[in-house]
Fold this sequence. Notes:
2 copies of one chain form a homodimer.
Chain A: E1 2-5, H1 8-11, H2 19-22, E2 26-29, H3 40-47, E3 52-55, H4 62-66, E4 73-76, H5 86-92, E5 95-97, H6 104-120, H7 122-130, E6 154-158, H8 162-173, E7 177-181, E8 194-196, H9 199-205, E9 208-211
Parallel strand pairs in A: 1-2, 1-3, 3-4, 4-5, 6-7, 6-9, 7-8
Amino acid sequence: MKIVVLDGYTLNPGDLSWDGIEKFGELTVYDRVSYDEKDEDIIAKKVGDAEIAFTNKTPVTRRAMEKMHNLRYIGVLATGYNIVDVAAAKEKGVVVTNIPTYGTDSVGQFAIALLLEMCHHVGAHSDSVIRGDWASNPDWCYWNYPLIELSGKTMGIIGYGRIGQTTGRIAQALGMKVIAVDTYKNPALESDTMKYVELDELFAKSDVIVLHCPLFESTKGIINKEN
Amino acid sequence: MKIVVLDGYTLNPGDLSWDGIEKFGELTVYDRVSYDEKDEDIIAKKVGDAEIAFTNKTPVTRRAMEKMHNLRYIGVLATGYNIVDVAAAKEKGVVVTNIPTYGTDSVGQFAIALLLEMCHHVGAHSDSVIRGDWASNPDWCYWNYPLIELSGKTMGIIGYGRIGQTTGRIAQALGMKVIAVDTYKNPALESDTMKYVELDELFAKSDVIVLHCPLFESTKGIINKEN
């Protein structure tokens, strides 16, 4: 069985091992091929007659898939699978999997890190202090940006799946109220500090808006001039 | 009644009002006087014959207090009151108050912001991306520092009062285990993800150590070469 990894470098720049996958067949790992849908011929050629293709962000379009004659399985080495034409895969009987949980904690943590950067600009303050701006300041306290306290503010989360819930949990621990939009509502998650709302209400009431939804046609451009 | 604010600028650089205090007597607000204990004569002179003195970070030593003949009350405009010789104040019948809760949420939030800066260097990544380092990178993902995931790691918190608990709550929401040292232990706070320990165990087991204790003789130099 032939196995091709189309863009292995993103997942494994050298600190991981492919041995676990190599056990199952003849493995070829490309660091990267192309992230451009238009390069579907090049992408199809790299997969060739392999049964198994792994992709992280390399697009696998319907046309590319038509040229992968032996393809039986596409493993997405990430959570978002918008890079694979899943309708075409279904028609052809090609199984597609993604990894929905590998980054739950780290994505939630990173979303909060981005927010706290806007609230505190820690790196910029550190640079300023190293330049001597605090030492030359007559006051005991020093800051050069307004600081934002999150407690009591409202975070609107669009997409309240695993990652959205992780970000929401941290936000609530920071004293924020969370309002969330999701197609699937789990009443067990609601509390004094977490409520599901409709999108209009989320836009009206949120101090901070976080997007934790996949890129679907229905979510494309969800933040726009009208809203 | 005469009221003196020794270092008003730190609390109120111009965006707040002193009217609430002015109602009670003849108010003098100094932006700053001195943050040096050795300037006790200068500090005492500014208080003069006032009954009420407010300080944020201006030290009020025993010797300074001896020259404040009418002093009846010292209001610390902050949480930490190590700048006031409270033993001397007690002997003289001078009431001292601090404000234990004004910054609970914001200090906890800021402690986590400092930690996330070390984990993600968001500002530095932003600068790097603006310089074009991502655009000129062949891969879809880009970072130039190793990123640190906090989930599963252990945070040791020295001083588990209101602020320590706030930081601890956020850390647990980030998926961390919390171990804490405090003289006063509240068993109701303990859970699968939060335990009180002794200082030695905290030093041995923590991936991250956070100090949320006041500066007492007993806490001075608590982090040292031997530990």
